[in-house]
Amino acid sequence: MIEIIPTNTCPPDFAEMAKRSGFFAQFAEWVQLDISDGAFTSIRSWPYGEGQWAELERMAAGALELPSAPPLRYETHLMVEEPRELGMRLAEAGIVRIIGHVEAFSDEKEILSALDSWRSAGAAEVGLALLLDTPLPVLLPMITACDVVQVMSIATLGKQGAPYDVRAIARIKELHTKYPELVISVDGGVSEKNIADLARAGARRFGVGSAITKAPDPKAAYLNLKAIAESAL
Fold first, then answer.
1. Which domain holds residue 129?
2. pLDDT tens for each residue of 73-112
3. Between β-strands 183-187 and 148-152, what pairing exists: parallel, antiparallel or unpaired?
4. CATH code (residue 49)
5. Is this prediction's pTM over 0.90?
6. Average pLDDT, stretch 129-154?
7. CA distance 174 to 179
8. Rounded distance, CA 88 to CA 95, Å?
């Protein structure tokens, strides 16, 4: 099953997050909420601004709604140095999928503990993302604990429009060959020019930013990307 997931990339505040999600809800089933703490990447997003963690706590307690959910279902890509507690609060707030970066953890034990904590907090799926230059074997001890692995296909995180890197194809193909049942997501620079190759390599979920948001007709771009990926299988 192909999923095209528009990325709500590092919104600076709750109002902007809600605005973007409301826009995506007009045509998409899922949205990926990208969060950065200003340390893992150079961008600082919600909820790391002044007073914003309190908004997250209100969401986790049910006092503040996750914007446009339903109909949108959320996954989140945590580009933060300390993802465990953040992931727990987001799962409690209703985010269905929690994806943290393998590079943010000190060791395998810490990773497995975080994945368990996110499930216990209510996430239906948990997984790991890895940077373009992180060797795939780093994932192997944790692979069976992941519902999804997200392969980055750009070298610089945090901003839309970073150039796509073709090295992602070989990484996806290797993962898919070794773990054919594993759900592989790809994020970064996905467009109509490369999505067929990514699908043939084994990716089934696609985080898409500017190819949708900067298109003259974002809904048409969304549907076209899905059609191209499906036809490639």
1. 3-232
2. 999 999 999 999 999 999 999 999 999 999 999 999 999 9
3. parallel
4. 3.20.20.70
5. yes
6. 95
7. 8
8. 10
